[in-house]
Amino acid sequence: MDEVVALEGRRSGLLTIGRPRHLDWALWIPGTVLVLLLGACFLGPQIFGVPGPNVVNLGVPHVGLGAPGHLFGTDELGRDLLSRSLYGGQTSFVVGISSVAIGLGLGGLLGMVSGFTGGWLDSVIMRVLDILLAFPSLILALTVATYLGPSERNVILAIAFFTVPSYARVARSGTMQFKEREFLLAGELSGAGKTHLIFRHVLPNIWGRLMTYGLLTIGVAMIVEASLSFLGLGIRPPQASWGAMIADGKAYLTVAPQMALVPGAFLFVAITSLNMLGDGIRSRFSGGELW
After folding, report:
1. Cα–Cα–Cα angle for 150, 154, 157, rounded to 5 degrees
2. Among 48, 91, 70, 95, which Cα is nearest to 259's?
3. Is 144:103 a contact under the CB 8 Å cutoff?
4. For 229-257, what is each residue's pLDDT tens digit?
5. How many other CB atoms are there within 10 angstroms of residue 119's CB atom?
6. Interior CA angle at 168 toward 163 and 169, to 5°?
């Protein structure tokens, strides 16, 4: 029966598969930039042989761009900016991906259960999530981060917490589109339980939109992490973080602008690539539909 139900889902066009294209620049360009940036952040320190992010050399503070041994210069403690930017990228990507994974898993589950079950449970879940959505995302993350204290783990939890309502709404919307379709009704008539139907038949049909939305929100999560670190509520020094590096560099904009501009440029490229890739995937697989 599972095979019959899955076949009916495919025949109904519920599993949206994009048509192959010879070359899709909207996907290839940001995707390539993102892969190169990820490779530079996670493999670059070993490949380029840069010093550790916390190696202090008080004899060479504020070295400018292109200096021997310090391509992007150094900060006020003589720490290499290229090294700290690469390690800061590791922190930003880990926080962004981890927080989105947690928020997507919890929010997606709540949304599917809410949309498929309906009734009073749907009303309770969505009203609670509506209350969370009423708070500005950064204010909500600031509140959670302040309560938990500054650390990488707490930043991940704070960002994941405020992303749950949006993922739940996306999952609920997709679930309600499919819950009355024939292939799910056939599954119910065959005796399949709600848990089986949700994970075996609903989830595969909404997985694409959840992943696309998740990809778009990784950039948002990275911006929130940078904002929290900029305000001193995120990553603790001396651990490198793009937001914390920008905060440290703002006091030296006149004498050493590279201290803020270098991590800011890395953050800009990462966020722009993620947003362009997410938009490209959404346009390619769903005709530009907004969820």
Report:
1. 150
2. 70
3. no
4. 888 888 888 889 999 999 988 888 888 88
5. 8
6. 105
pLDDT tens by residue, 157-177:
988 888 898 899 988 888 888
- Joined together, the tokens standing for residue 156 give 């991940």
What is the distance between the alpha carbons of residues 230 and 118, in angstroms, rounded to a whole number?
Answer: 42
Q: Which residues pair with 67 in a beta bridge?
A: 70
Angle at alpha carbon of residue 273, lines to 267 and 274, rounded to 5°: 90
Helices (H) and strands (E) in the chain, counts: 11, 0
Helices (H), 49-136: 81-117, 119-133
* CB 224, CB 159: distance < 8 Å: yes
pLDDT at 288: 40
Exposure class string for 199-237: b at 16+ Cβ within 10 A, else e: eebbbebbebbbebbbbbbbbbbbbbbbbbbbbebbbbe
Q: Is 88 in contact with 242 (CB distance < 8 Å)? A: yes
Residue 251, helix vs strand vs coil: helix
Residue pointed to by tokens 């309560």:
147
Tokens coding 282: 């959404």
- Helices 203-230 and 2-11: crossing angle in degrees, nearest 10, is 70
> What is the Cα–Cα distance from 162 to 164, expressed in whole angstroms?
6
